[in-house]
Each structure stands twice: as structure tokens, then as C-alpha cells.
From TrEMBL:
Annotated keywords: Aminotransferase, Pyridoxal phosphate, Transferase
GO BP term, pick one: polysaccharide biosynthetic process
Listed GO MF terms: pyridoxal phosphate binding; transaminase activity
Family the UniProt entry places it in: Belongs to the DegT/DnrJ/EryC1 family.
Record InterPro entries: DegT/StrS_aminotransferase, PyrdxlP-dep_Trfase, PyrdxlP-dep_Trfase_major, PyrdxlP-dep_Trfase_small
Protein name: Aminotransferase class V-fold PLP-dependent enzyme
Length: 397
């Protein structure tokens, strides 16, 4: 991660193919496009890659989460359970639909603690959204069971875990609906883009219509389309899809490089006193997009983070003080800073954020260091990096 590090003639050729043909829109212009359907081709490739019956491409990962929720009928006043550690997109998508994000603690997998999920269920709960953070996953069996028992929609945000698996199944394909991002920094990039994947045909048809103004996509050349329901424009363009098409074909190559680089770094620091690793659930295989490890406490984690920064070990973060990914600094959410009025139901639903503490999440995130695994490193560079990391951590202990 990210896939842009290895751009090649494969991406350039796909983009040039679209430009030579001249149709940049994914729907319509049937005669003019002379058989060029990059978005449709990419959807078919992704269906194979993610072993899912249906794939709907959209304009971003945030759009994918919004479309997934809407496709499952989630909206005004519904509660959606989500983790405290994620990207801001998770609660943005929920709130766009007038629903209420219910944030709960993570465990040592760095995503939803099944016990915390169970404890947060109320009569208003409609869905549970897991976020497979930093290339790994939560306990999918336990969470699926909770969702089945309580008749909740299970949504999987796999934006950061493209290529990971759980019990042999691709992450993103396990829950009722999976969401992917292909933004500029993800493992596969389209520049901007995203996808909703599902085996549920009704959800897929909803996603197909909703992401294109509610158009039903019946017939050729858009002439006779009707609108079974309201929608928006979350479309991807043919240019973006073309980049993604070249990239998805290279996913096995990307994952192999990530795994090699991850393994070298993990082995380099595994025996350093004080270092422990996140738990990967039994049967899980990471995408190796990030190496996450814990230090014994916040102070030591911060010292490691500083030492890495001042000694050229870049792209490592302690998320405790980060305002994109962790609840502590999401003041714009806590204070409901909105450009437009928010319903009183959502306001009341979010009052808990003023007082609730998330000690268990703090326990894990304060001690965690997350290092991005780059694709462009040579093996030599990774080995040197690993030794340096080990040396710096030892010096702190
Ligand atoms: C990147 C990301 C998103 C949002 O994707 P965009 O394409 O940038 O909108 C959502 N969730 C997670 C976990 C992400 O990492």
C-alpha cells in the first residue's frame, strides 16, 4: 500500500484506451463507446477477486459506505454500531442518512469488541459496521452470530484490508455488505473510487439505482429509464475505472510484496523486549498493509514514535493523538459542528459522546504504533529499516 507506488504502462494503456475512445461516462453512449465498458469490466474483476455475486462501483469509499447503508434501508433515527478507531468516513456516512452512529470499544484486534457490540444493542439498532483497520480484521464469527441473533444488518468496511482473508474468504465479502475504497493511498487505487460488494441481489439492485439518481438502468442508451426511488450521483468515471482495472489485476503481486516487507519488519522487532503485536483472529490472514505493534504504555509508545520520526523511519503513527482516525480528537463530531441543522433525534442520540469514556480503546490505541508497508521498498531497504527500528526501540527501553 499504496498501489500508486508501482504505476506502470498497464495503468497508462488502460487510461489511453478510454481517452482514445472518448466516452468518459460509465453509462449510456452505447454506440459511441464501441464496446468499451471499463467500469463494468472492473466490477466483473472485483466480483472474482472478492468472491461475491454482485459489485457496484461508486465514486469513493465514503460513498460505498453511504450506498451500502442506504441499500439496506438504514436511515432516520436508526442506530448503527461502529468502532472508536476508524476513519471519519464511518460516522459521516451514517449521519448523512440521518442515522445515529453508536461508537463502541475496540479490543486487541484493533476493531470491534464483540462484547462491546452486544452491550450497545437497543431496540433502535439496525446495523453493525465493522472496520477492518490497518490490514487486519475483527472476530467475524462472533460478530456474525450477534447480528444473526438480533436480526441486524452486518456491514464490513474493508477499505484498509484489500487482499486479506478470514477462514479463506476475502475480507469485505463476509458480512451482508462490504465496502472498499480505491482512493489515492489505498492498496488498489483509481485516484478516487470505491465499491459495494454483496451476495444479496436486492441490496445490489438498490445500490445500482441509488448511486445513479435512482435510474433503473433498464434498456439501452438510458432512453426509457424510470426512477423506482430517489437517489444521488455516486458514479465512478470510465477514466478512474480504467486505472483500477490495471491495478486489480496486479493485486496478487502487491500482496506478495506487502507480505515480504511486513514479515521482514515483524521479525526484526519481534524479540525486542516490550514489543507485542495485535491479535489476528484464528483463521485470519492479514493483507499486510500495515505492521501494528504495542509498547507497554503510552509514554514508551510516544518515545518510539518520536525516535522513529527523528531518525528517518517514516510512515509510522501513534493514533492516540491523531484527529482522523480516533475518537479522542473528533471534537467536530462531539460538538455537532454541522453546516446544516441536525435532527433533534440525532442530537439526542449523540449526547453520550459528551460523557462516555472509552478506556478499553484508549488502552490499545495509546500503546499502538502503526507502520505503513510500502510497495516500492527493495528488500535491502526493508532489512535496513527493520534493524533501525529494533535498535531505536531497544534504546528507549
Ligand atoms: C479510506 C477509508 C475510507 C474512505 O474512503 P474514501 O475513498 O477516501 O472516501 C473509509 N473507511 C476507511 C477505513 C478508510 O480507510
Amino acid at each position: 500500500m499504496p498501489g500508486f507506488e508501482l504505476f506502470s504502462d498497464l495503468e497508462r494503456n488502460e487510461v489511453n484506451d478510454v481517452l482514445d475512445n472518448g466516452v468518459l461516462m460509465r453509462y449510456g453512449f452505447d454506440g459511441m463507446r464501441k464496446g468499451h465498458w471499463k467500469a463494468k469490466e472492473l466490477e466483473a474483476e472485483l466480483a472474482t477477486t472478492f468472491e461475491s455475486n454482485h459489485v457496484q462501483l461508486v465514486s469513493s469509499g465514503t460513498a460505498a459506505v453511504s450506498v451500502a447503508l442506504a441499500s439496506a434501508g438504514i436511515g432516520a433515527g436508526d442506530e448503527v454500531i461502529m468502532p472508536t478507531f476508524t476513519f471519519v468516513a464511518s460516522f459521516e456516512a451514517i449521519m448523512m442518512l440521518g442515522a445515529i452512529p453508536v461508537l463502541v470499544d475496540i479490543d486487541d484486534t484493533l476493531t470491534l469488541d464483540p462484547k462491546a457490540v452486544e452491550a450497545a444493542i437497543t431496540p433502535k439498532t439496525k446495523a453493525v459496521m465493522i472496520v477492518q483497520m490497518c490490514g487486519s480484521m475483527g472476530n467475524m464469527d462472533a460478530l456474525s452470530k450477534i447480528c444473526n441473533n438480533h436480526n441486524l444488518v452486518f456491514i464490513e468496511d474493508a477499505c484498509q484490508a484489500i487482499g486479506g482473508t478470514y477462514k479463506g474468504k476475502p475480507l469485505g465479502s463476509i458480512a451482508d455488505l462490504g465496502c472498499f475504497s480505491f482512493d489515492f493511498v489505498k492498496t488498489i487505487t483509481c485516484g478516487e473510487g470505491g465499491a459495494v460488494v454483496t451476495n444479496n441481489k436486492a441490496y445490489y439492485i438498490n445500490a445500482d439505482h441509488f448511486s445513479d439518481h435512482g435510474h433503473d438502468h433498464v434498456g439501452n442508451d438510458r432512453g426509457a429509464e424510470t426512477h423506482p426511488f430517489l437517489g444521488y450521483n455516486f458514479r465512478i468515471s470510465e477514466l478512474h475505472a480504467a486505472v483500477g482495472l490495471a491495478q486489480v489485476r496486479r493485486l496478487p503481486e502487491f500482496i506478495n510484496i506487502q507480505k515480504r516487507n511486513f514479515t521482514i519488519l515483524r521479525n526484526a522487532i519481534a524479540d525486542v523486549p516490550g514489543v507485542t503485536f495485535r491479535t489476528v483472529p484464528e483463521g485470519g490472514e492479514e493483507s499486510y498493509a500495515f505492521l501494528n505493534f504495542f509498547m507497554p504504555n503510552l509514554e514508551l509508545a510516544q518515545k518510539v514514535s518520536e525516535a522513529f520520526k527523528t531518525n528517518g523511519v517514516d510512515a509510522c503513527w501513534n493514533y492516540y493523538h491523531n484527529n482522523w482516525h480516533y475518537i479522542r480528537k473528533w471534537n467536530h463530531l462531539k460538538d455537532l459542528k454541522s453546516l446544516y441543522p441536525i435532527s433533534s433525534e440525532v442530537k439526542e442520540g449523540l449526547e453520550y459522546l459528551q460523557t462516555k469514556s472509552f478506556d478499553q480503546s484508549d488502552f490499545y490505541i495509546s500503546r499502538n504504533i502503526s507502520c505503513l508497508i510500502k510497495l516500492s521498498w527493495t528488500e535491502e531497504e526493508v532489512r535496513a529499516r527493520g534493524s533501525k527500528m529494533a535498535q531505536l526501540i531497544k534504546a528507549i527501553n
